[in-house]
What we know:
By secondary structure, the protein is an all-alpha fold. It is built from 10 helices and no strands. 75% of the residues lie in helices and 0% in strands. The chain is elongated.
Amino acid sequence: MIIGIPCAIKPLMFSKRNIIISVLLVILITLVVLFNPEARAKRLIDKGLKEAKNNNLHTAGKIFQRAAQICPECYLARYNLGNVFLATTYYNEALNEFYAAASIKPKDPLPLYEIGRVHAILDNKETALFYLEQSIINGFSDIKRLNNDPDLFKLHQDERFKRLITLWEKINANKGK
Length: 177
């Protein structure tokens, strides 16, 4: 014979109070996700990357600017905005964004490389070489890009650029050991 024991948990689980609390929690979590500055910036960055991929650089730039306004410490917004400015030959604006990206992630070699690249375009040879060296020290690993980037061709004959290539080779030779 089975004896039924009344369970007090089941009726409580589906009480109006618990349903209301659950609904409010879902709404709160949704609001946090939708209005969280980092999440909003990330959605905008994804949208900007699609526009940039379709070569709509003006639209992409506006989207990245909006993402950077929403979340000033968002590395990807700053870095990608720098790339849009660079592609559209707004070099000083590109520098500002790459410097901002580098201040957010100081050990990331990519904005350091791009800062060096823009300085090479602007014929600031000393500064260009300094930032290219910093990018290598911080792990820049694309030697083909370094050797074939047309923006850096002016530096190739400089003895210091050749030393950068040697530095890259030493660093990467040590990684293999």
